[in-house]
Amino acid sequence: MPSTRDIRRRIKSVKNTAQITKAMQMVASAKMRKAQQSALSGRPYSVLMNEVLASVCQHAGDFTHPLMEKREVTKRALVVISTDKGLCGSLNSNLLREAGRCDAATTIYVTAGRKAAQFVTRTRRKLAAEFTYRDTPMFSEARAISRFVQDMFLKGEVDHVDVLFTNFINVMTQKPEMRTFLPLGETKALDSDVAGESSHSELKGPSFEYLFEPAPTEVFAALLPHYLNFQMYQYLMEAKASEHSARMVAMKNATDNAKQLIKDLTLEYNKMRQASITKELLEITSAAMALG
Fold first, then answer.
1. Where exactly does CATH 1.10.287.80 map onto the chain?
2. In angstroms, rounded to a whole number, what is the distance separating the alpha carbons of residues 7 and 14?
3. pLDDT at residue 192, as a whole number
4. Is-catalytic flag, 102?
5. Which top CATH class is 4-25+248-287?
């Protein structure tokens, strides 16, 4: 049975842990607001890019592009966007569980984030490249990932490219989702409804007509790579907003659990102290009665 000294030491240790988790919760909360704003502000631009691209497709005639080529899928690439650090609840475990369901024999992995790279290495799957991105993702980082998988697709190394990321729904909900990246005709753009929850829509044209200069085919050829680069950038922002939200919730739960544990330990300590005092009083009383 632990002594009162052991319980005091444990209470002190739990209090120190609670201070750390509280500080991490506040840091994650500050980062979450910025990341959430970036992710939500990028969605309207993604939808508009979707509409412009669809309008160009309608006016491009029989124009084709290598990034739109549909092939029989024998090899596929999967871009997995994870976090670099843990302490964010089940965010990474849910994401990597989905990544593990892909056929290891026919899937080549491209990772963004240290946790995904560790998973691919640990499970002995084929890792083509490992990328990193900051707390505030930069467009250049997304462009590097996008260009790498585009080159793989154009060279015929893979026939299909998917992106697996954690989509930001709200502060309490983050959902791992897989989206087709290449070929282009199957890509989907992130959209948002009035409730703030995200949905996905395939390329669809606007209700009005655009005028293009120069010719639509030239605009189309220049727009495709930028469209893909921005889609990858949006996926990175969604993943980062999900990470900070999940970490804030996890640290809040850890802080609340620590406070409850401190209450329980304090109650146990007071009971043991009271029992010790009562025992000493009984011993004194018994000794006095024996002498009297």
1. 4-25+248-287
2. 10
3. 47
4. no
5. mainly alpha
